Amino acid sequence: MTKTELPINIPLLDKGYVELQDFMGDDLSIVNAARVSFLGESKGDIKDKKLLNYLLRHAHTSPFEMVEFKLRVKCPLFVARQWMRHRVWSYNEVSRRYTSEELDFYIPETWRLQSTDNKQCSSGDAEQQMQAQFTQQMQQHVEQALDTYNKMIDAGIAREQARMVLPQNMYTTFVGKVDGHNLMHFMKLRMDEHAQYEIRVYADAIYEHFFKAVLPWSAEAFEKYVLKKA
Amino acid sequence: MTKTELPINIPLLDKGYVELQDFMGDDLSIVNAARVSFLGESKGDIKDKKLLNYLLRHAHTSPFEMVEFKLRVKCPLFVARQWMRHRVWSYNEVSRRYTSEELDFYIPETWRLQSTDNKQCSSGDAEQQMQAQFTQQMQQHVEQALDTYNKMIDAGIAREQARMVLPQNMYTTFVGKVDGHNLMHFMKLRMDEHAQYEIRVYADAIYEHFFKAVLPWSAEAFEKYVLKKA
Amino acid sequence: MTKTELPINIPLLDKGYVELQDFMGDDLSIVNAARVSFLGESKGDIKDKKLLNYLLRHAHTSPFEMVEFKLRVKCPLFVARQWMRHRVWSYNEVSRRYTSEELDFYIPETWRLQSTDNKQCSSGDAEQQMQAQFTQQMQQHVEQALDTYNKMIDAGIAREQARMVLPQNMYTTFVGKVDGHNLMHFMKLRMDEHAQYEIRVYADAIYEHFFKAVLPWSAEAFEKYVLKKA
Amino acid sequence: MTKTELPINIPLLDKGYVELQDFMGDDLSIVNAARVSFLGESKGDIKDKKLLNYLLRHAHTSPFEMVEFKLRVKCPLFVARQWMRHRVWSYNEVSRRYTSEELDFYIPETWRLQSTDNKQCSSGDAEQQMQAQFTQQMQQHVEQALDTYNKMIDAGIAREQARMVLPQNMYTTFVGKVDGHNLMHFMKLRMDEHAQYEIRVYADAIYEHFFKAVLPWSAEAFEKYVLKKA
Fold first, then answer.
1. What are phi and psi of C38, to 5 degrees?
2. Which residue on chain A is closest to B142 by alpha carbon?
3. CB D161 within 8 A of CB D155
4. Which residue, D205, D218, D197, D168, is CA-closest to D57?
5. How far from C153 is each of B114, C163, D122, D143, CA to CA, in Å?
6. Does the annotation mark C97 as catalytic?
């Protein structure tokens, strides 16, 4: 991938997106950082790729820190809350103390049922009739919340307090920057089948559209040694 | 302070608290860590205290990392969001993917007005009549949110989706652990007059009830060289 | 283990040691931190231990961050260099800009041969005659270095420059503090058979004497799921 | 600065260097990251520069994390030891377990005297005659060390043990990567007059040749609000 193609914006959910704004490095940067250990240099594609696979297979993760990805993300607040538990990222996020504009809310296309096996997961979809019913209720709820919010703002109530009425499907926007090693850790956890669908679509998009394009060899090794696909 | 007094729980806002669950170290641990630099030891209270002041005045912060505080916190979600931007803490938080129980919501005692000078702050209180009006609207809004939430849960909708309707004044609970240096950084930012009132009460309580009790010398130096009070 | 037994000092190599100075938490702190996720509490030893095993088996590592170990370490400089690549620890170390006293040097009991299979490892011991010869050369070399060093110090040369003549088997002393999760990561890498013998004895001692005593359940789970012993 | 000029290598001390291998971002990336707070965009050079100054004056440091610098460094071991106390950097360093080649040693141009005011500093130069004397002694010492080292290597002693004889003026090489905020912290501490001369030349070179070129506005603000030059 070349930088001239940037930014690349991938729309997700009903109103969200993930955007690659910038990156630093490529597969060769990883190989060269690893070769500093013995003061070596690139030895051609075949040996370089072999070394890169060796690194990931044996969890020699520090050379993968030499690559950086900078993303702009618009996602529901509950997704951002899971995301920001990853503490090695750098973040700058919209603050609802500063602005009351551009408020959007996530309305799921599909309501899922609570899993009975796994306390933290969903499992299968609700039946057709419930789908329509809860979508309508959600929309009404959001409208009521916005109505109360706007009344408060119009009456001069501080934004930092008025925001309290807004539900957790509110979209938020942030810039997030992370190195290759910590991005792989994020993807491993958030592409997992136990991750919530709404964050999984972000992790999947980052992997498919950005990680594979910037680090094709690392992506292959990641599937083999981290995701452990066949 | 001795560990036999623990835990110490300080109620905050209408239904929140901050609780000191455990700590490690004292002012002397900081002094002794600093003295490793020249293989020295404690030299008595007067010289030890003088050294501790010197450390903070010159931003030699690493010895303060040798002390730890472990807290349990119940606070509104928007407070937790500000809190967790502090990335050096360790956190374990209740997950609304796991449980739909013990839902509480923060209802402010006082509605504040938007500052016109400072975009991110509030300034003064709304008038009496508005106070009652917005408190009532907030309560109704929470009831509606809970009603919709419970209907979803009863219909078998996954907790991870149903939680989306809950407003951001929802209380959350977490265990947070941090070293003395990073706690001072948190307190400096969150005890500041520009910090939102609802997080300031937590920072103030941590300082007054826990930090001063565990690290009395450091507290004095903190006021002098970090808060820069007269 | 109770705190009244502290500090516990384990002599290592010819003049080094690792000392447990303080710790915070126990196996139950880990279990209770994990149970905050669903607002639960301890459920008795059998269920608690089962949960702790589950956590480590599934790499749910954040609750292990709630435990802290504070060590004082005296080790050769090249060991300290490997140690301090672990960046999540807090460190305070003797500075040879400050003091020219208490200089000790590591003289190996046994000289090992370079492995031919593994570029970074040793493999087997040198023969008897070489042992004596290199030990003697090492001792002479240290004496010469110290002699030059002392001449420089006596002539008023700055300590920060004079130290340059001291060889890398010089002992250094530091206080290091780390949480349970990151200590397990350190032990996994440094107890490994590919780790250099001189750091392995430190990692082994920390595990055998401190980790097992403070976190007996975690130690069992660590052997099973991290070290993967039979 | 454009990437086509990279790498830029600045020779330092007698055989060292610092090299800018790659970077990500510019002053505008910082401004734009900050403006995510209120969903704003660049407002032209004058306002952008003013905002950037505001950020640094008020220690709003997170937007500066959005910029990255990747360096290759060859420096004496005791300089690398000070450098790597900065724990937020990513590092890959030559390992003397792997290779016994390319051994270089720092011979100071000037021997400095121990400061009597400040325990950790040097102050003024030794007189002419001592200069020559200690330089000669240093050279002899290095030769002896190398001689012993090579004898050990030739006899098959493991590299990981043989390296112990090498003095601390040995050069080491590493790749180091850091964000703009943490680089400013490094520069503030290591460009300080109390920093050892041998690391100060590295910090100065990074500032003069790389930081100023990549982030000219930030450099101005850094001098004003962090270094507090007139």
1. -120, 25
2. A165
3. no
4. D218
5. 65, 9, 12, 21
6. no
Q: How many CB pairs under 8 A join A and B?
A: 152
A68-80: b or e for each residue (b if 16 or more CB lie within 10 Å)? bbbbbbbbbbbbb
Nearest Cα to C176, choosing from C203, C153, C143? C203
D155 chain-C contacts, CB cut-off 8 A = 126, 130, 134
Rounded-to-integer distance, Cα A104 and Cα A170, Å: 6
* Alpha-helix runs per DSSP H in chain D: 27-35, 45-57, 77-83, 128-154, 159-162, 180-190, 197-205, 212-214, 216-221
The answer, for A117 touching chain B at a CB cutoff of 8 Å, is no
Non-local (6+) Cβ contacts of D78 within 8 A are C96, C160, C163, C164, D168, D169, D198
Instruction: Name the residue type at position C197.
Output: Y
> To 10 degrees, the CA torsion angle through C39, C45, C47, C50?
110
A132–B contact, CB cutoff 8 A: no
Give chain A positions within 8 Å (CB) of B148: 137-138, 141
CA separation for the pair B67, B63 (Å, rounded): 8
Q: CB under 8 Å to A58, separation ≥6 — which residues?
A: none
Q: Which of C55, C22, C21 is nearest to C37 (CA)?
A: C55
Q: B152-170, pLDDT tens digit by residue? A: 999 999 999 999 999 999 9
Rounded to 5 degrees, what are φ and ψ at C191? -90, -5
Q: Give A-chain residues touching D93 at CB under 8 angstroms.
A: 36-37
Spatial separation of the C-alpha atoms in residues B98 and B77, rounded to whole Å: 17
- ipTM value > 0.90: yes
Hey, is the C-beta of B154 within 8 angstroms of any chain C C-beta? no
Are C99 and B39 within 8 A, CB to CB? Answer: yes
Extract the tokens encoding C6.
């502290």
* Cβ-contact D6, D20 below 8 angstroms: yes
Copy the structure tokens of residue B16. 């929140």
CA A147 to chain CA centroid, nearest Å: 30
Q: Which residues of D are catalytic?
A: 190
Among residues C57, C87, C159, C190, which one is catalytic? C190
**Residues B57, B97, B163, B190: which is the catalytic one?**
B190
Greatest Cα pair distance, chain D, in angstroms, is 68
B29 and chain C: CB distance < 8 Å anywhere? Answer: yes
Which among A23, A36, A62 is the nearest to D173, CB-wise? A36
Residue A113 dihedral angles phi and psi, to the nearest 5° = -90, 150
pLDDT in tens, chain D (230 residues): 888 899 999 999 999 999 999 999 999 999 999 999 988 888 899 999 999 999 999 999 999 999 999 999 999 999 999 999 999 999 999 999 989 889 999 999 999 999 988 888 898 999 999 899 999 999 999 999 999 999 999 999 999 999 999 999 999 999 999 999 999 999 999 999 999 999 999 999 999 999 999 999 999 999 999 998 75
B230 pLDDT tier (thresholds 50, 70, 90): low
* Cα–Cα distance for residue pair B116/B130, rounded to 1 Å: 19
Cβ contact (<8 Å) for D159 and C114? yes
Q: Are B35 and B27 in contact (CB under 8 A)?
A: no
